[in-house]
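Researcher: Next sequence.
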Amino acid sequence: MSQACLHCGACCANFRVSFYWAETTAHPDGQVPQEYTTPISPYHVAMQGTNQKNPRCCALKGEVGQQVSCQIYEQRSGTCREFQAGDAHCQAARARYGLAPLIPVFELSA
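Model: Next structure:
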């Protein structure tokens, strides 16, 4: 996790976080707590709070852009694990909250 993510949280309050239901504890191999999800189709769930006009994940604690944390970080979904700090989606979420763009790590090392 990027250090910037500990202060941001914009992604968790900007997008619907949906994934295959078997990632939840409803499946023997799942890890995302089922009680944090809501069904959106026969095979997919979304993190509670993210399937609405103004999304905010129920696992996000704190103030976006100030200090945030994820209550289930070690148990987060593949969707969250694949999200990349500094990519176009990240930058769009940050812009929505009036946060400065992140400088991608590869630009810092050049």
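Model: The chain has a mean pLDDT of 92. The beta strands are 18-20, 37-39, 44-47, 60-63, 67-70.
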